[in-house]
Amino acid sequence: MNFTLDMLLNLRRLTLADTAIRADLLAGKYRRLTPEVVIWEETWRRLPPWEQALARTYAFGVSADRAVLSGKSAARVLGIATVGSDPLVEMTYPNPKSFRARRSWPPHTVFRSSALSEDEVCVVDGIRVTTTFRTLRDVARYHGVVAGVVAIDDLRRKSPGLSIEDLHRSMTVEQRYHGVGAVRQAIDLSGDSADSPLESMARVILVRAGVGRIQTQGQIRPSRGTTTYRVDLLIDGWLIVELDGNVKYDGATFGKRADEVIRAERQREKELQNAGFLVLRATFADLSPREDGGCGLLDMVAAAQRRRTTRPSA
Prior knowledge:
Helix 4 (71-78) crosses helix 5 (132-143), helix 6 crosses helix 9 (197-209) and helix 7 packs antiparallel against helix 8 (180-189). The chain has two domains: 48-189, no CATH class; 197-310, Endonuclease, Chain A. By secondary structure, it is α+β, with helices and mostly antiparallel strands.
């Protein structure tokens, strides 16, 4: 189920005649997302985690009088990809005098005070959010280079012709603010061919680790086959990394049953392996950093490269 704005109920709009709704509220049939905005409990439970995050974001946006949705929250409303389905809602107060003390923040929210010019705020679905470039800037500076690349990659894929130079002119040239270094790195590491946030995350992790020459969305046609396969990432022309998101196994997103998807992937993988390629499969968990700075994906790639190096020659 996908979230739509009409799923939310703004309690400030209730009248004395809305007795049935008030009875359902007392009976606990609605979930309160903010003090003023609720959603039908059964509807909430049917939403996947990323749609629940979007619903909470809209609820806070509808409730806000002076704050503006920003960071990942603004990205969700603007349709820009973000990392994970974190329920955190981010809001910025353009006027420091309106800033809320931390002790008054509701759970899973963060409020910031930052100068926002009029041309850095726009209205989407009646909700005030930071504009696209300001949003990208805030995602990178507050959430790090990888999160910034995910968002920038998504915009570049959807906006053909948007170059690295264009992004620097809009976000870093002659601009001074905390975190501008992370924004510069995210722009320089961005691309326009990633097909999903997981691909963007994996590419950045591999590039920064210096594992080899990386090609995104590589085209491979096994010598004895008639089908050309597109792979997520290709390292040094022989090592394939495929990123698996649970969404493609939900039976609805791609209109295929999970077992059909799995069978097709196994056949595809068999043909690639028979052609001499090594295929690694990684999930979001494999991209999550450990305390030592490594992650499961880097471990898998390093192990594959060691095996290839130490393999005895024929």
